[in-house]
Amino acid sequence: MPLIVFASPKGGVGKTTMAVNIADAMRRNGRRVLVIDFDPQNTLRLHFGVPLSDTAGFIAELPKRPDWRNVVRQTPSGVMVLPHGAIDIRGALGLSSALERDPELLAAPLRSIMADPGLLVIADTPPGPSHALNLLAPMASMVVAVLLADATSAALVPDIDNGRFLGSGTMAALFAGRLRVVLNQVDPNSRLSRAAAETVARHLGPRLLGAVCRDEVVAEALAAQRLVQDIAPNSRAAEDLREVARGVEAALPAVPDTLQAGWGAR
User: Fold this and answer.
1) Residue 252 CA from chain centroid, whole number
2) Closest CA to 116 of 264, 250, 2
3) How far is CA 87 from the centre of its chain?
4) What's the pLDDT tens digit per position in 64-84?
5) How would residue 165 be classed by pLDDT, with cut points 50, 70 and 90?
6) Mean pLDDT, residues 229-237 taken together
């Protein structure tokens, strides 16, 4: 039932890579996990080895009201995936308009997905403001903002801190308390990267879930269409990802023991 939304104020920060590898880490910790790709780039599926030729998806077909159960991909990792689906610019604009006119196109199937109390749902949203983020934030147990350890991200911290990242006015005030941050690509050999990471950590305090170091194995995993813990479980990046997953788990609402016991049987 918990919904975790991964977001970022700008692109190119490794948000999707973070979302899929945290999903994998939480599945390894015993969670049943479903990942939904809301980004029209439709690349999330590749991290789980879904063939490039498999372009079907869920979000791209929302105006047709598809049954999400018919689109779920079971992956070797054990994480279930709802791909976005291939879409061109015209289709993306049409989808955006349809969601603006009728938010229930998305809200209704999402409520159906979240009705399973033993299922953890992870949503990967497009960078920056989006209809998806506006619709998902009110339903989310947690919004995880991914930032790079650089000067630009450090400059964005005030917008993260006061909730403007989630919108303006009441929207920001209501959901800022659910916002957490992960720093990505921290380079311990770079004075600027270390300084940016320290600035963010001091400002955000416990809202910072963790940091992931810059590590070539992350790019190698994507190139192989595999997950970091599959190809390099002893790498620094894999350990950092496991630590972030533990932080996410600790920040989520408690789950009854009866549900925990039922996860392994499904």
Assistant:
1) 14
2) 2
3) 20
4) 999 999 999 999 999 999 999
5) low
6) 97
Q: What residue type is 182 in one-letter code?
A: V
Q: Which CATH number fits domain 3-252: 3.30.1330.10, 3.40.50.300, 3.30.565.10, 3.20.20.70?
A: 3.40.50.300
What are the distances in angstroms from CA 32 to CA 68, 116, 121?
A: 17, 10, 9
Q: Which amino acid is at 56?
A: A
Encoded amino acid at 152, one letter: T
Sheet holding 119-124, edge to edge: 73-74, 80-82, 32-37, 119-124, 3-7, 142-148, 179-186, 208-213
Q: What does the alpha-carbon distance between residue 147 and residue 193 come to, in Å, rounded to a whole number?
A: 12
Instruction: Please tell me the number of Cα atoms within 13 Å of 42 on its side-chain side.
Output: 21
pLDDT at 263: 39
CB-CB contact of 217 with 231 (8 Å): yes
- According to DSSP, the β-strands at 80-82 and 73-74 are antiparallel
Q: Which of 36, 20, 99, 32 is nearest to 72 (CA)?
A: 36
Q: Comparing C-alpha atoms, which of 1, 265, 239 is closest to residue 120? A: 1
| 8 CB-contact burial (10 Å; exposed 0-12 / middle 13-18 / buried 19+) | buried
Residue type, 88: D
For the cut 90, the answer to whether the pLDDT of residue 176 exceeds it is no
Q: How far apart are CA 259 and CA 118, in angstroms?
A: 6
Two tokens at 169? 């006015």
